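Cross-check.
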Amino acid sequence: MRYSKAIFLVCITFLPRQSFSQDSLAEYKQYAHRADSLFQSKQYAASGQTFHLAFNSFGGKGFPDDRFNAARAWALGGNSDSAFYNLWRIATRVHYNKYFELKNEPDLMALHADKRWQLLLDSVKKNELASYANTNAQLSEIIDSLDAADQLCRHNLGRYWNQKNNRDTALEHQLQKQVSQVDKNNYPIVDSLFRQYGFPGYSVVGMSGADNFWALVQHQDKHPDFQDCVLEKMKIEVDKNNANKAYYAYLIDRVKGNLGQLQVYGTQMHLNKDSTSYEPNPCIDPDKLNERRKSMGLRTIEEYTQTMNTRYFGTLHKSK
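Predicted model, tokenized:
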């Protein structure tokens, strides 16, 4: 899950190979949504069990992101066996290769002392190296390491936002400062890579590398001209199906917002007046927003809003 100071969320899913009915998929989504809500309310064991029900409802299959989140829930709930089971599933079945994400995930720290942890890391590292085949491996690893630092500080800030009690203004300031510092440190490197390679698409750094490079650019709000230059080059790769068009939509909105213009796809959001829900920043032609979102592979704005409210529940005020 990705975080930024100007809160946004990107959901990446990979469909299981086996075909299931729309009813079973709907049931799966209901369980997964409930599991996520339980996790956010720190009912970790219940969250893990509900993820398990989701997988059972879908013939034992599950989206990799949900498997990863189930492992986080089980680890925090004290069930290492179930946590490792879910992590090994994605490592072996879908060749999960986000080595830095796995290694730096704070919610999995309880697993580090287990002898299975290093074996899992080795397996995921092998998947990562395999994903670099026919790509620029050195460039991919640089991008992935920068993204790992980017996501770790944002994850920590996101967890703080979702704490209902014990608000600490000094701590929040410190966490925000860490995010800003990481972005500042990353900028000259990302800028240098862009000058040398343009927007590195799938054919250069693989899907993970291209998506991670996009995320690094997305967070350079202090350099909107740079973001705009990347946007132009990314469009070339999107037109060749060599980059993610949904992420391209996010970057369009980010650039528009940073240049003081109306966004196109409603991906950038803010809390409403009474802080009971997120809503999109001003958009062009709001009546056709969902039509534009669909053309870029994005869910409806209503579904996106619900996801934002669930993910950042700690920032919301309960409506009276």
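DSSP finds 13 helices and two strands in the chain. The longest helix spans residues 169-197. Passed to J.P. for a second look.
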